[in-house]
Fold:
Amino acid sequence: MVKITLNKSTLELTEGNITQQETDAIVNAANTSLLGGGGVDGAIHRAGGPKILEECRKLGGCPTGAARITTGGNLKTRYVIHTVGPVYHDGKHREAELLASAYKNSLNLTSRYKLKSVAFPSISTGAYGYPMHDAAAIALKTVIDYLKTHTDIELVRFVLFDQKAYQTYEKALQELIK
Ligand code: ADP
Structure:
């Protein structure tokens, strides 16, 4: 596990499963329909039960780069923040900007709901094909910039699914803070 302090907030990298987190909110790497999918999305709905999908249905989708919030259902978290990262094509279709905005809008919702802790998966790096190191750099920079200018969120945790993802985020973080 890696931990750094920014103002009074903690930024953490850990290897694990997003569905097991006890943070106030966890973030789902959803798709624009918000009606469920594979990867993180499938795991969250399986573990969280039907309440989450029921609320998602009422939201009527979510554009790429935006974020919505629902109950945490049966999960240990109070809320699930559903955000939609970009599908990666070639890096010339506003992917970087849209990925940053998925993180930024999720953090804005965390603040608006007065939540103290939030856990993120690595958005867009599974089915959506975003190169992991580039995605890590954008994710971490967006969170670091946010924590430098907002002091309300006490903990932001990145939950990386395997050792390779964890090591890639660790390397990207070292490059950003050196
Ligand atoms: P996207 O469609 O945004 O690419 P995916 O869910 O396909 O989202 O994958 C995003 C990342 O989350 C991938 O790097 C994948 O390995 C990882 N992942 C998959 N399941 C979990 C889980 N249960 N907890 C944390 N990370 C996960």
Summary: The CA atoms of residues 37 and 99 lie 19 Å apart. The first strand starts at residue 2 and ends at 6. The chain is about 40% helix and 20% strand.
